[in-house]
Amino acid sequence: MSPNYMRSFSEGCLRPPTVIGQFHTLFFGSVRLFFLGVLGFAVYGNEALHFSCDPDKREVNLFCYNQFRPITPQVFWALQLVIVLVPGAFFHLYAACKSIKQEDILQKSFYAGFYIFSVFLRIILEAVAFWLQIQLFGFKVNAIYMCDVGALEKKFNITRCMVPEHFEKTIFLIAMYTFTVITVILCIAEIFEISCRRLGILKTQ
């Protein structure tokens, strides 16, 4: 792929054809990535080391932590961010290969429809990630986790484990849910903006 295609692709990803899309990119790229990369590491970075059970044995702690966290929140949210970016990236790659200017996307029905479809996919992926987050992490992190160690130790079946910084993790969970809701609202507002521009209610950029 030539440098011109790469330049058009990067410009399309950073500067979508709608005002709300540009704000979504700014919000998505700066706030969510900063929150996850910096604060997420501070909250979850040492969780496995400080996760302790009774009895406090390494194999018990590791077994229960793997049961408590089938997937670490940082990995889940990083995958969510990458997957949600795929529909938009695919569209802008298509636009770059076809040499479609950003200001022309909303002028033609096919391109506008294709772009709206990519926004709908973002909404669906965000909704799926929201549901998965509920299934994996819930809305609250309790201070005590009851671990089933029957497969590891025959002497006892249930043991108590201490979850470090549970209150901070609860706040972080709520923040990530809020970010998902905000991005979905922005995607819906972007579709509304495109519809208004197509109908002539709003002037095109």
UniProtKB/TrEMBL annotation:
<keyword id="KW-0472">Membrane</keyword>
<keyword id="KW-1003">Cell membrane</keyword>
<keyword id="KW-0812">Transmembrane</keyword>
<feature type="transmembrane region" description="Helical">
    <location>
        <begin position="109"/>
        <end position="132"/>
    </location>
</feature>
<dbReference type="InterPro" id="IPR038359">
    <property type="entry name" value="Connexin_N_sf"/>
</dbReference>
<dbReference type="InterPro" id="IPR019570">
    <property type="entry name" value="Connexin_CCC"/>
</dbReference>
<feature type="domain" description="Connexin cysteine-rich">
    <location>
        <begin position="125"/>
        <end position="194"/>
    </location>
</feature>
<protein>
    <submittedName>
        <fullName>CXE1 protein</fullName>
    </submittedName>
</protein>
<dbReference type="Pfam" id="PF00029">
    <property type="entry name" value="Connexin"/>
</dbReference>
<dbReference type="InterPro" id="IPR013092">
    <property type="entry name" value="Connexin_N"/>
</dbReference>
<feature type="transmembrane region" description="Helical">
    <location>
        <begin position="75"/>
        <end position="97"/>
    </location>
</feature>
<dbReference type="GO" id="GO:0007267">
    <property type="term" value="P:cell-cell signaling"/>
</dbReference>
<feature type="transmembrane region" description="Helical">
    <location>
        <begin position="25"/>
        <end position="44"/>
    </location>
</feature>
<keyword id="KW-1133">Transmembrane helix</keyword>
<feature type="transmembrane region" description="Helical">
    <location>
        <begin position="171"/>
        <end position="192"/>
    </location>
</feature>
<dbReference type="InterPro" id="IPR000500">
    <property type="entry name" value="Connexin"/>
</dbReference>
<dbReference type="GO" id="GO:0005243">
    <property type="term" value="F:gap junction channel activity"/>
</dbReference>
<dbReference type="GO" id="GO:0005922">
    <property type="term" value="C:connexin complex"/>
</dbReference>
